[in-house]
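# nightly structure sweep
# worker-07 picked up a monomer target from the shared queue
# config: single-sequence mode, recycle default, output format = structure tokens
# input follows
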Amino acid sequence: MKSVSVKRFFWILLLLPALLHAKEYKEGEDYIRLATPLPTQTGDKIEVQEFFWYGCPHCFQFDPKLERWLKNKPANVEFVRTPAPLNPAWMVHTKTFYALDAMGKIDQFHVELFNAMHVARLKLFTQEAIADYLEQKGLDRKKFLDMFNSFPVDSRARKAAQLGSQYKISGVPTLTVNGKYVINTNRTGGFDEALNVLTYVVNKEIEAK
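# output follows
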């Protein structure tokens, strides 16, 4: 009971700024509502989705803030991370994400890849460079490359590209809620404010259920 109460307390803290500034969060300005909602991947749960790119410095800065938000999210909210290839050069990182996910290694290497690119300044822009880096970190190079070039990974990468197009994503990081709402973090006045908007929109969906 204690852990549940603490989690609810943190959710109230997250929600409070959005409630206090609710009048400022306007549809069409702070977030966009799609004319036609898109299917979600999380069944009856409220889906929060992040579109990101490993090469994006803003995504790197946003990631720990989003992780803190996720630690205290409501139980009926499910998170989906989508490595959107908004241009062909990003596809290598999209396929890297899905290859590692298929290998059960994404939790181990997600932050590692951000740090490698934005702290260590490694130029991980080709599958060979990424495979070399992962091998140094103890991952089987051949297994990674085989998975990277597999049909299932290619299919998921193409689906990510399609989703980015359907949501009309123009930059990253971008958040979506339940296939209905789009929050462009570059338009909200900062990452903390973007998460306040996210909390506000999620609460709207909770109340609507």
